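In full, the data:

***
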Amino acid sequence: MRRTRTLVGALFVLVAAAYALGAGSAPAPAAGSVAPTFTLTNNAGDPTKLSDFHGKWVVLYFYPKDFTSGCTLEAHNFQGDLKKYEQLNAVILGVSVDTAASHKDFCAKEGLSFKLLSDPDAKVSAEYGSVMEYEGAKLSARNTFLIDPEGKVAKVYMGVKPAAHSQEVLTALAALEKK
């Protein structure tokens, strides 16, 4: 009986880890591939397309939920580095399954000035291999895609750790800009 519980517990941990890494959705687009296009509603209630940013680098980051500690930390770090991204001709777009209204409130409360995009049915998250399930609900998994000015995926970050992620992306972006 004890062994069965141990095995069931281990299986649960493995399944949860697989979902957290995006195994619950389509494969993530690989570096060098064309980034999947999308149109999503932003925190101001306006439609936002990936093609709106042609000619710029796009940091497209997926995150689970507004107002949670890890997501707030990650957003604050991107906001703190926003001027550096702008100097490198880059925009930041955050995506989660939260509503545009939730994103608006999150931006207001946390002082965020970049766009957050609402993906309520997780379709875009799935196209980017960034869906996980938590307590029966689909959420966006914490993954980031650095998209070049021509619309190709330049770098992929899966299972991101929020604390140092913005600096990690900035370093890669600066190196790619020099090429």
